[in-house]
Each structure stands twice: as C-alpha cells, then as structure tokens.
Amino acid sequence: MVSTVDGIPPWVIGVAGSTGATVANALVYPLDIVKTRLQVQLKKSNGTTGHAERHHYKGTWHAILSILKDEGCLGLYHGLPVSSLGTASTNYAYFYWYSILRTLYLTKIQASTTIAADLGLGTAAGALAQLCTAPIAVVTARQQTRPDGEKKTTFQTTRDIIDGPDGYAGLWRGIKASLVLSVNPAITYGAYQRLRDVLYSNKKNLSPHEAFLLGALSKCIATIVTQPLIVARATLQSHLSSDPEKKPFKSFQEVLKYIIAHEGVLGLYKGLTPQILKGLLVQGILMMIKERVELIFVLLFRHLRKRIPQMLMKPARSILG
C-alpha cells in the first residue's frame, strides 16, 4: 500500500477531501447557482444584457430573490446531483494526486518543499484532476444557466452537448481555462500549508475552527487572484455568445477581451462576492471535515494494527494449547 510521508495512504486523503468538499458544496449550493449566473451575464455595447439571460441580476441578493420568485426554492438547487458528483470526483482526484506527487518530491528530491514547489505540485495535481472531471463541470454549468422553462435532466443535457457542433469535445469546453485555473487549488492549498506552518507549526492536528479559518483565508487569496479566469471559464462552459446571430465564444482570451471591451476591467470580477463567500464557506468546511476524517482513519488504522495480530494469535494459541 502506497503511503504519504505522514503514513496516510493517498486514497484516504482523497476520500477525506472528497467528503469534506461534497458536504460543503451541498450546504452552500445556492451561492454556486448565483455566482455562475452572475458570471455568465454579458452586456452588449448598448449596455443591454445578452440574449442568454431573462434577467439582469444586479447582485447576489437580487439574484437569489429573482430565482426564488421565478423558479421557487428548487431553482436554487438545480443541478445539485451532478454538481455533487463533480465536486466529489474532482476533489478526490486532486487530493489523491497531490499526496502522491508531494510524497515523491519529499522522498526523491528533497526533504522539504518550497513555496514554488508547493505551487508546482498543486498545479500538476489540479491539471490531472481537471482533465478527468471537466465533462461534469460543463454539464453542471449548462444546467445551472438554463432558463426555468428549458430545464433538462443530466442525461438530456449531456446528450445536447454531444449532439452539438463540438461533438464529444464539447464536454471539455473551457478546458484550457480550467488547466490554467489549476493554479487556483495550488494557491489555495499552498497558502493553507504555509499559513499552517507559520501559525500552528507545533500542532500535528488542528481544531475544527483552526482548520476552518485557514481554509477560508487561503481560498479567499486564491479566488481574488484567479477570478477573471473563473468568469471566462463559466462563460465558455455555458456555451454563450455575445449575440444570438454569432457563434459561442471559442477561447477564454476571446471572452476576456469581450468583457473588458463592453464592461471594463471590473467586469472580470462580476460574481466575486458570492464566489468569495462560497469559497470561504466551502474551503473552511472542507478543510475542517478533511482534518477530522483523516484523524478518524489514522485512529482506525492504529486500532486495526493492534487487533489483527491479536486475532491471528488466537488460532495459533488454540492449536498449540
């Protein structure tokens, strides 16, 4: 069994991170719907919104009230099943690969990591995770941005994407932006590790509130740095165009240029409030649960190591006796 330098198998770290992320995502999912819809709003040169929106949301609270009015409470949870699957798979893949890459680095290259090494390892793990789970993110974004009267099931949405002009490649729309955004979790967990080393260097296990605080703070830093690319990726994955007669955007550079031209630089940061709020809550809850799950597995492994030899000794004693 492959183990990390801390003695915890990679699959345990993957399960711990996946569990925390899935629970956190379900708790704050309405914020995910809101931030996605805010991010994909496009303005034309005359100041009106693009054809894809029935409403122009003025902010987080206005978006929540509008969705409740038009779609009811369930509107805030549309696409939750596939989003949960995507969250679970992405975070499992990220933590699994990060633990393996970090262990290889510490055992084969040098005994401690630098900030640059942490960012590099995190980016590599994030890229591997994105390649594996991008289709789920595309389907989720498409479901979240459909008007109320055009809601479709996960299977129908997937079928529509495959039957579209991009074919199966449509399931990987925005993958370039996603790969660049692999630096987001790298910044997040790199900052988390550094903050932990500085603030709690003498503690092996963090308390729930300490893990929550570090997770929230590190995610806030990463979100502010990468928000423009988050907006561009959401727009690409939603298959939007600047005008009904035009083809959907093809690259994140095209999206960024359009937004800057029609909305200014601040347009790259639309949806930042729910994005940060969601990130603070999700990352805080994720790291809080991850720390607890890892501790549970460590205690379970210790218990089994003691019990298994005892269980094997009993038959031997009965035979000898």
From TrEMBL:
Extent of the Solcar repeats: 8-104, 113-198, 206-296
MF GO annotations: ADP transmembrane transporter activity
Pfam families: Mito_carr (PF00153)
Membrane topology of the entry: Multi-pass membrane protein
Keywords: Membrane, Mitochondrion, Mitochondrion inner membrane, Repeat, Transmembrane, Transmembrane helix, Transport
Subcellular location: Mitochondrion inner membrane
GO cellular component labels: mitochondrial inner membrane
The keyword Metal-binding belongs to this UniProt entry's keyword annotation: no
InterPro entries the record matches: MCP, MCP_dom_sf, MCP_transmembrane, Mito/Peroxisomal_Carrier
Assigned protein family: Belongs to the mitochondrial carrier (TC 2.A.29) family.
Name assigned to this protein: Peroxisomal adenine nucleotide transporter 1
Organism whose genome encodes this protein: Tolypocladium ophioglossoides (strain CBS 100239)
